[in-house]
Write a structure and sequence with these properties.
transmembrane helix; MMPL family transporter; alpha+beta; elongated; membrane
Length: about 725
């Protein structure tokens, strides 16, 4: 692989104008396709096969009037006052005239007015699903009651779900990344070129993703996740290759040869690192959740493009930059401060000397950080976690104030039978059982469809939609109605769907974690031809994941230091965050593992002692890995400032995960373990050694081939180069 990438790097360097033109053309074509075919994103976190989803699908077929999006308009009179029936009726009439609305129910008729007469709820039913509600319809709905004087009118419900938008706060991460690049390289040209290269890759990936959104159902989170990952890995991959190119230039190598060598060696590690991220993200399909599969594939596609850009466009840009990627004092070809060792070498000696206490402190410390993860709860976000001041949040808080938090977590009990008589009898029995269930506040009277074969009942829990008590009530209701004969009874609605999605994802998480850990052992065994190094890497990855889960739970769920990160209402973690985090951190952890340990193996193979090889691996790569980790942390951290709770928690967890894995696990525990294992670290049973292919991540075969070619040239002066 190294030889192929070497030739690709030299070709891109030599034909840099054409390579750049091809990428710009591809970017323009993808941008045009995105503009022409871009479709809307959705927030349908559905789960095929669950009770709530089956019930929802059945309702759309047998009770289409109740299958569309719903809205809830909450009205409140001034403190001490009462709502006027005429004023409320005017708001109800206005809601009924919103395009796409088929029903708006008067709260005085439905009985959805508080005993003191101050608060009222207007239930609004749309004809189409929430994804089909247009922006114009949503705007008209939001304007209902704007002219009502003396009343506070807020608009909530699933119809008010807002698309996630990219704001200016994410640019802070890019600015920090640029600063880190300038400090690392000491050259504005190198920093700017690396950043520009990554941005082109991200732009191409995002354009391609939006072009496909017309035929694929993307959640609003998917493009943000793709952007987040594409930026982080794009900058890091370019950083690794550019750093190796600079190293070769300071050693006196010609520019084209340096570009080829950098692409062949560091580029091989980039291919492997990118492949692990892509495999881990694409592997999310094993969980069996469509929206999560699409999110994983979207992010995987962006990462794959980042790898391709780093291997082709970056060598071309190196050709344009030439020696200007070096600081001015190094452009003469001489190495600067070659005799002075960097901090990486000094840190490596400290770690190898104190390996046992460092190992104990690291493992115990990360284990302690993992403890809060024992209490981890998962749920889909609701309006209670929306940004303060947003329409959905204002409506949620006002409903909780007037009616109680359970009115924000309404459940729908759907009773379906073959005959109207059997369905009605089952509905009556179910209503009695549900009303007597702990955690249930109220059950509405049954509402049959015209045929009488499907009956709906609204169930109001006592607690909010993300509360553990509501989850317990849902399970209790399902157990109590399971024995009713003559009809099928199922709970659905946004709250029930969220509970079912979270339960399935929680059950799938251990399986996916074992799959990813096993995959890491296999891949690293291929790369390093060792048995203990992959096991050590997998155990380190598990420590990273555990500590990251623990810290995220402590802040986002338990509320410790929540205010520092803009978390005003602590609550359960987003249900798909743990699985997504496992997949992404796996790829990033293997990224750092390869760049550090490959140099250790290279020096050990060339005759260094295990201790010296460990120090050398850390000394030569600590600076680059540190810069890469800081860049990733900055990019991910920039998304913590977004209002959307999903993106905020994902950005935070990834930033923390990168910091823990890079600085605690890879730069500290890994060299300590390697020093402790000594020669045993590189042991591989012969039968396995014969079976495994040689991937040559370090580029040893490339070095041998190039040396042989130079020897042949020296022996045959007539040979044409």
């Amino acid at each position: 692989m190294a030889s192929v990438l070497y030739r690709l790097g030299r070709f891109s360097f030599r034909r840099r104008g054409r390579v750049l033109a091809v990428w710009l053309l591809a970017l323009a074509l993808l941008g045009g396709a995105a503009a022409a075919f871009m479709g809307p994103t959705s927030d349908n976190f559905t789960m095929p096969g669950t009770e709530s989803q089956r019930a929802l699908d059945s309702l759309r077929e047998k009770f289409p009037q109740a299958g569309g999006a719903t809205g809830t308009i909450v009205m409140a009179a001034p403190e001490g006052g009462k709502l006027d029936k005429a004023a409320v009726a005017a708001v109800v009439g206005e809601a009924g005239r919103v395009p796409g609305v088929i029903a708006a129910i008067d709260p005085f008729t439905a009985g959805s007015v508080t005993p003191d007469g101050r608060y009222a709820l207007v239930q609004v039913q749309f004809a189409t699903a929430v994804d089909e509600v247009t922006a114009a319809q949503r705007t008209a709905y939001e304007q209902v009651g704007a002219s009502a004087r003396g009343l506070r009118v807020e608009h909530g419900g699933e119809v008010m779900r807002a698309e996630v938008e990219i704001g200016s706060t994410e640019a802070l991460g890019v600015l920090v990344a640029a600063l880190v690049l300038v400090v690392t390289f000491g050259s504005l040209v190198a920093a700017g070129m690396t950043l520009l290269n990554a941005l082109i890759g991200v732009a191409a990936g995002m354009a391609g993703l939006f072009a496909l959104s017309g035929v694929l159902e993307l959640t609003g989170t998917a493009p943000i996740l793709a952007l987040m990952l594409g930026l982080a890995v794009g900058i890091d991959y370019s950083l690794f290759i550019t750093s190796r190119y600079r190293q070769y230039l300071t050693e006196g190598m010609a520019q084209e040869e340096a570009a080829g060598r950098a692409t062949g060696t560091a580029g091989s590690a980039v291919v492997f690192a990118g492949a692990t991220v892509v495999i881990a993200l694409a592997g999310l399909f094993v969980v069996g959740v469509p929206f999560l599969t699409v999110m994983g594939l979207a992010a995987a596609g962006t990462v794959a493009l980042a790898v391709l850009v780093a291997l082709t466009l970056l060598p071309a840009m190196l050709g344009f930059a030439g020696s200007r990627v070096l600081p001015r004092r190094q452009r003469g070809g001489q190495a600067h401060n070659r005799g002075r060792e960097g901090f990486g070498f000094r840190w490596g000696r400290i770690v190898t000397r104190l390996r046992v206490p460092i190992l104990l402190a690291g493992v115990v410390g990360l284990g302690a950080l993992t403890l809060p993860a024992q209490d981890m709860r998962l749920a889909l976000p609701d309006a209670g976690t929306a940004a303060p001041g947003s329409p959905a949040r204002e409506a949620y808080d006002l409903i909780s104030e007037g009616f109680g938090p359970g009115f924000n977590g309404r459940l729908i009990a759907a009773v379906t039978g073959d005959t109207a008589a059997a369905t009605g009898a089952a509905a009556t029995q179910a209503a009695q059982l549900i009303d007597a269930t702990d955690g249930v506040l109220h059950v509405s009277r049954p509402q049959p469809n015209p045929q009488g074969t499907t009956v709906l009942m609204t169930v109001i829990p006592e607690a909010g939609p993300a509360d553990a008590a509501t989850e317990q009530a849902v399970h209790a209701i399902r157990e109590r109605v399971a024995g009713i004969r003559g009809a099928d009874i199922a709970l659905t609605g946004a709250t029930a769907i969220g509970i079912d999605v979270s339960a399935k994802l929680a059950a799938a998480m251990p399986v996916y974690l074992v799959l990813v850990a096993g995959l890491s052992i296999l891949l690293l065994m291929l790369v390093f031809r060792s048995l203990l190094v992959p096991i050590k890497a997998a155990l380190g990855f598990l420590l990273t994941v555990g500590a990251t889960f623990g810290i995220t739970v402590a802040i986002f769920q338990q509320g410790h230091l929540a205010g520092l990160f803009g978390v005003d209402v602590p609550g359960p973690l987003v249900s798909f965050l743990p699985i997504l985090l496992i997949g992404i951190l796996f790829g990033l952890a293997m990224d750092y593992e390869v760049f550090l340990v490959s140099r250790m193996r290279e020096d050990f193979v060339h005759g260094d002692s295990p201790q010296q090889a460990t120090v050398n691996g850390l000394g030569h790569n600590a600076r680059v890995v540190t810069a890469a980790a800081l860049i990733m942390t900055a990019v991910f951290g920039g998304f913590v400032f977004m209002d959307d709770p999903i993106i905020k928690s994902i950005g935070f967890a990834l930033a923390v995960g990168v910091l823990v894995d890079a600085f605690v696990v890879r730069l500290t525990l890994v060299p300590a373990v390697m020093s402790f294992l000594g020669r045993a670290a590189w042991w591989l049973p012969r039968p396995i050694d014969r079976i495994l292919p040689d991937l040559d991540i370090e580029g040893e075969s490339l070095t041998r081939n190039l040396s042989a070619d130079r020897l042949d040239d020296a022996r045959d002066p007539l040979k044409v180069a």
